[in-house]
């Protein structure tokens, strides 16, 4: 089993040290290679040793997590960042998704959730909890210029609630292949190149109820 190298970025020293200790004790596969106290410190350390996973706080002095994420991804497109936050406000989630994070973790998450999220993102998946996505979806849109068909709107809504293509197929009595074709058409129509960006687009434009 390969080691997952982790970097922890947070301006609260006690929280940061507690998280590092918890990660080290919870899973032999995890190795915290360094810590950073803000976005600028993170970008400097990124040049010294490259982590497999970054746990990134949102609100920090000097440079916040949003700007740090945008800058890091511009220079290292392959980097995998998971946002850490206590915020429940829609604007922070949207900004971090648009910045390119692969997942979210609340700072009060239990260790099983932390392990699951890190592992899934390391394996190349996005990890946005249904609770977090639900906090973003608030109202049914007025569909302007018929951007999406009624069926495509249904599929976008289910994607935003965290359902897989197979689960959407079961709910809508479609084949998985048909759902995947709809998803490809939706990504093309919305100029989104992945599910995370589609979720951000849908939230921004209120394309879910």
How would you spell out the order of helices and strands?
EHEHEHEHEHHHHHH
Q: How much is the average pLDDT?
A: 85
Count of separate DSSP helical elements: 10
Strand-pairing-aware structural class: alpha/beta
Radius of gyration: 18 Å
Shape, principal axes of CA atoms: globular
Indicate the low-confidence ranges by residue numbers.
Answer: 138-145
The largest pleated sheet is described as:
5 strands, parallel
Strand order of the largest sheet: 2-1-3-4-5
What quaternary form is this? single chain
Helix content: 40-55%
Counting DSSP E segments of at least 2 residues, the number of strands comes to: 5
N-to-C terminal Cα separation, in Å?
A: 42 Å
Strand proportion, as a percent range, falls in 5-15%
Structural description of this entry:
The chain has helices at 13-26, 39-46, 65-75, 90-99, 111-122, 130-136, 150-160, 165-172, 176-190, 195-204, and strands spanning 4-9, 30-36, 53-57, 81-85, 103-106. By secondary structure, the protein is an alpha/beta fold. Strands 2-1-3-4-5 form a five-stranded parallel β-sheet, sandwiched between helices. Helix 2 (39-46) packs parallel to helix 3 (65-75).
Helices, strands, pairings?
Elements: E1 4-9, H1 13-26, E2 30-36, H2 39-46, E3 53-57, H3 65-75, E4 81-85, H4 90-99, E5 103-106, H5 111-122, H6 130-136, H7 150-160, H8 165-172, H9 176-190, H10 195-204
Parallel strand pairs: 1-2, 1-3, 3-4, 4-5
């Amino acid at each position: 089993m390969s080691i997952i190298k982790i970097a922890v970025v947070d301006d609260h020293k006690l929280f940061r040290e507690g998280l590092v200790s918890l990660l080290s004790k919870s899973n032999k596969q995890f190795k915290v290679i360094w810590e950073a106290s803000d976005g600028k410190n993170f970008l400097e350390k990124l040049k010294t040793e490259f982590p497999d996973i970054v746990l990134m706080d949102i609100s920090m002095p000097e440079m916040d997590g949003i700007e740090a994420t945008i800058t890091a991804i511009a220079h290292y497109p392959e980097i995998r960042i998971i946002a850490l936050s206590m915020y429940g406000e829609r604007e922070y989630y949207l900004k971090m998704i648009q910045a390119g994070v692969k997942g979210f973790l609340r700072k009060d998450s239990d260790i099983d959730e932390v392990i699951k999220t890190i592992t899934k993102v390391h394996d190349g998946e996005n990890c946005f909890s249904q609770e977090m996505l639900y906090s973003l979806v608030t109202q049914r849109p007025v569909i302007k210029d018929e951007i999406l068909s009624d069926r495509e709107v249904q599929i976008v809504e289910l994607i935003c609630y965290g359902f897989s293509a197979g689960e959407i197929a079961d709910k809508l009595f479609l084949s998985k292949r048909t759902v995947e074709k709809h998803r490809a058409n939706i990504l093309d129509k919305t100029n989104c190149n992945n599910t995370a960006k589609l979720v951000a687009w849908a939230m921004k434009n209120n394309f879910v109820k």
